[in-house]
Write a structure and sequence with these properties.
CATH topology: SH3 type barrels
Structural class: mainly beta
CATH class: Mainly Beta
Helix content: under 10%
Low-confidence stretches: none
Number of helices: 0
CATH superfamily: SH3 Domains
Protein name: N-acetylmuramoyl-L-alanine amidase
Radius of gyration: 15 Å
Amino acid sequence: DNDVWLDLGRSRWVKAEHYYWRPFKAISKFPEGYEVSYCDGINGAYKGSINSKKPLTVFFRKEGWIDIGGCRWTLEKHFDIVDIR
């Protein structure tokens, strides 16, 4: 089976051909080198920091936080969100 499936979480899967995903990127509002913390969840434990203006893929937005992949969450207010369609 060469079909592409997307995991929506909680054991829910959908064929990619039936799902429209709008990719967004997050770009730090701060100068290169300024560190923005990220956590392991919303209001979670500190995991590290981002210090680059490199655009990051936004996988999920919730309660003022953005998921930038790898179970890394950061406050949305520190980033400009860009629609890359």
